[in-house]
Amino acid sequence: MDKCNGLFNESKQLNCSPLERINFNNKQFFIKRDDLLHPYFSGNKARKFAYYLHHNFDPITKVIGYGSVQANSLYSLAALAKLKGWQLDFYCKPIPTWLKATPLGNYAGALSLGANIIEVNELSSNLETHVETINQHLAQSELLIPEGGRSHLASSGVKQLALEIILQCQKKKMENPMIMLPA
C-alpha cells in the first residue's frame, strides 16, 4: 500500500487528507478533512474525479458536464479540463441575470479556467433529457461525465478514501470506529 504521498501540481495532495480530532459533548471525534485536499478538487470531487486525473483518455479533447451553475463539480470539471488540455462544455439551467453581470463563486472560477457554460433555455425540456440527447451523439473525442461526477469510475477514488481511513485508524489504534459520511 502507498504511504499517502500522491502529489498533484507538485505542491498539493489529492489523497491522504488529515484526520482532525475534536471533542463534542465529552466525546472524541475524528473528522476526515477532504476539504483540505486541493483548491480545485476538495471534498468528494477529489475522490470522484481521481480516476480522470490519473488516467489517459486519448483521443478525448472535450469533456461534457451538466448541473447547477454554482456546483463544485462545475469548478472541478473546469480545472480537470484545463489540466488535461480539454475543452469543457457545461450545460446548466438559465443563469440568473445578476450572476451573469457579476460572476462569483464556482461560476466565476469555472469561467476563469476556460469553461464553456451553456444555458439550456427550453422550458419544456429538463436538463438531463437535453444532456441525454447530446450523449447519444457524442464524438469519439468527447467524454460525458455525469452530474456531480456520479460515475462507476468514481469508485477508485472512493476505494482510496476507504484505504486511507483504514490506515489512519490503524495508526491511531482505533478499534471499531464508527464512520459517518455527509450525503
What is the compact description of this entry?
The chain is α/β, with parallel strands linked by helices and 183 residues long.
Give a structural overview.
- The chain has 183 residues and is α/β, with parallel strands linked by helices.
- It has helices at 44-48, 50-54, 72-84, 97-101, 105-112, 127-135, 155-171, and strands at 7-8, 12-13, 19-24, 27-32, 62-66, 87-92, 116-119, 142-144.
- A hairpin with a 2-residue loop joins β3 (19-24) and β4 (27-32).
- α3 (72-84) packs parallel to α5 (105-112).
- The chain contains seven helices and eight strands.
- The radius of gyration is 18 Å and the shape is globular.
- The strands form three sheets. Strands 7-6-5-8 form a four-stranded parallel β-sheet, sandwiched between helices.
- The longest helix is centred in the C-terminal third of the chain and has 17 residues, at 155-171.
